[in-house]
Amino acid sequence: MKAVAAGVPSLAPFFDERSGLGEDAQDVKAQPVRGSLQQGDTPGLYGGSKQPTVCDVDKLKAFLTDPRNDQKAQAWARALGITTGEIPEYLDRLTPVLLRHDTLVKNHDYKKGKAVPYDSLLQAGIAILVDQQGQPAAKCSCGNPLRPFTGDTNRISVKFEDGNKEWKGYDRSSVVAVRPAARPLEKIALVDVDDPDRGINRPVGTGGAKDDTFDTRKTEAVPSLAGKTFGEARQVLADKGLATGYDTGSMPTDGARVTATDPPAGTELRFGQYVMLSVAEGSSPGGGSTTSPPPSTPGTSAPGTSAPGSSGSTSKSPSTGPSTSAPSGPSTSMSPSAPVTSSPPAVTSSPPPTTTSAPPPSPPPPETTSAPPVTTSAPPPVTTVAPPPESTGAPPPVSESAPTEPTASVAT
Question: Domain range spanning residue 381?
Answer without folding.
Answer: 338-411
